[in-house]
């Protein structure tokens, strides 16, 4: 007899895939991969009491499939998904919002400032999401031959990690492409 079947709860262990810390709020969020096709990934939220002591606060279930990255933008939690969408969660309530950014997987995310987030996709594009009105800027395509893996930002400068290269983006244009040589 099966009493309840939930896609966010499983007996088997879940791997930690990505993490983010909001130092001002004292929060740690961890995305956990279920590893099964029928299960959705979840975000676990912890309150950091001191340097090493954390208390589990809640589990956020975006109910949107696989989670690839998680970050804080302002006081909101953002996670990217394989279906090209972003889930925006409030760490202080159960409020969840979903925004479709593109049709391809979003691999990595970062905060640009308190109201903007940057994402890189499987389609080799950079997307910027404005959290005030939930609009996506015109994507910056970096070439169909590129494979983008990571993104980070410091104010208006965005760095994108790709296969054997790093792109430096400023004002939604590539300012520099640094080629990283392979070691033989």
From TrEMBL:
Biological process per Gene Ontology, one example term: maturation of SSU-rRNA from tricistronic rRNA transcript (SSU-rRNA, 5.8S rRNA, LSU-rRNA)
Protein's organism: Ancylostoma caninum (Dog hookworm)
Any one cellular-component term (Gene Ontology): 90S preribosome
GO molecular function, one term: RNA binding
SUPFAM superfamilies in the cross-refs: WD40 repeat-like (SSF50978)
Stretches that traverse the bilayer: none
Protein name per the record: NHL repeat protein
């Amino acid at each position: 007899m099966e009493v309840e079947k939930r896609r966010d709860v499983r007996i088997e262990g879940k791997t930690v895939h990505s993490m983010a810390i909001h130092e001002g709020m004292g929060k740690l969020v961890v995305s956990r991969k279920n590893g099964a096709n029928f299960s959705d990934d979840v975000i676990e939220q912890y309150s950091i009491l001191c340097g090493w002591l954390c208390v589990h606060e809640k589990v956020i279930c975006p109910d949107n499939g696989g989670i690839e990255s998680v970050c804080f933008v302002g006081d909101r939690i953002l996670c990217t998904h394989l279906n090209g969408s972003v889930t925006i969660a409030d760490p202080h309530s159960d409020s969840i919002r979903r925004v479709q950014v593109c049709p391809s997987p979003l691999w990595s995310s970062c905060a640009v400032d308190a109201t903007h987030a940057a994402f890189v996709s499987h389609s080799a594009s950079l997307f910027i999401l404005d959290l005030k009105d939930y609009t996506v800027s015109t994507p910056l395509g970096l070439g169909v031959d590129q494979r983008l893996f990571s993104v980070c930002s410091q104010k208006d400068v965005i760095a994108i990690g790709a296969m054997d290269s790093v792109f430096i983006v400023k004002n939604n244009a590539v300012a520099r492409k640094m080629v990283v040589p392979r070691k033989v």
